[in-house]
Design brief:
This protein has helices at about 20-30, 65-80, 85-90, 95-100, 150-160, 175, 220-235, 285-295, and strands at about 5-10, 35-40, 50-55, 80, 110-115, 125-130, 140-145, 165-170, 180-185, 190-195, 215, 245-250, 260-270. It is of the alpha+beta class. β9 (about 180-185) and β10 (about 190-195) form a beta hairpin.
Length: about 300
């Protein structure tokens, strides 16, 4: 019997926010596996006792990114970790967008401001500031051209905490077509979803935000699928990925609209929400993929 750990965060006294977690545990057990939901920072867990450790909802990692990557590297040395530790290390820092762009993948134009860098913000258009290590729109905000002072304060707060900032144009296509998330499992498209814009004008960077507003099923276009597959193919060293989520928005292109197709906003290879509560028919494929990965020796 395969022993499988589904790795999450410690919610303390609050309910776990991962709605898929109990569904997956039950489905794996019904399929004959021994499955446990465990917290990544639980020092009492014997990771070597599992045939497969699947990172599922470690949604507190971005506050402790270095500690989390160190855990993944330790865990990957004693058992099979999905996704692998080298993928975790690469994907927890969103400067990977620059590498995707160098590989020819269309991405949201991004520049980076590390602590000590001169403040360089766009003029004449809306833009977004967020950290290179973050999740759930933490420390993310949208600014109009006249809001430079607030944006500078935002940068200062992030830099005080040692965070590197990403500065991106606000792509207004997201207000029309939303953000599309293409989920892959076991190397194949699993399903897709669409959500509306997360960042409202005037919302503070430290305000609570709804991470997936108005989430709904989505059928990806051929262009969206092509960009998502190109992004996955550009991950360094062609690692084996059990799961992936590619978040896409519409680019703006040039003055004639050329190049205004889908672009990558994020490539989530660590702990993406699978949205199985929206796609219950995908549970069987996820269980099959996990079971197949657990059987690899």
């Amino acid at each position: 019997m395969s022993r499988i750990a589904l790795v999450t965060y410690d919610p303390g006294s609050e309910p776990n926010r991962d709605r898929d977690l109990p569904v997956l545990v039950d489905a794996l057990r019904a399929d004959g596996a021994e499955a446990d939901a465990v917290s990544w920072d639980d020092g009492g867990v014997d990771w070597a006792s599992y045939d497969l450790v699947v990172i599922r909802s470690t949604w507190d990692y971005s506050w402790r990114a270095a500690e989390f990557v160190a855990w993944a590297e330790r865990c990957g040395k004693v058992t099979r970790l999905a996704n692998p530790a080298e993928v975790v290390r690469w994907n927890t820092d969103k400067r990977y967008l620059g590498q995707l762009a160098e590989a020819g993948v269309p991405v949201v134009p991004t520049r980076y401001l590390a602590p000590g860098d001169a403040v360089d913000l766009p003029d004449g258009r809306e833009y977004v500031i967020k950290p290179t290590s973050g999740a759930g729109a933490r420390y993310a905000a949208r600014y109009a051209p006249g809001e430079r002072a607030a944006a500078v304060r935002h940068l200062a707060r992030m830099h005080e905490e040692g965070l590197t900032a990403m500065v991106q144009p606000y792509l207004h296509g997201i207000d029309v077509a939303g953000e599309r998330a293409l989920q892959f499992f076991g190397g194949r498209l699993l399903h897709a979803s669409r959500k509306r814009a997360v960042l409202a004008p005037g919302a503070a960077y430290d305000a609570d935000k709804v991470a997936h507003p108005d989430l709904e099923p989505w059928t990806p276009t051929p262009a969206e699928l092509a960009v998502a597959e190109a992004a996955l193919a550009a991950v360094p060293d062609a690692p084996e990925l059990l799961y992936a989520r590619v978040d896409l928005v519409d680019g703006e292109g040039g003055e004639d609209g050329e190049g205004a197709g889908p672009v990558v906003m994020e490539l989530e290879l660590v702990e993406p929400n699978l949205f199985l509560f929206l796609h219950p028919g995908s549970v069987e494929a996820v269980v099959a993929g996990i079971r197949a990965a657990a059987a690899v020796r």
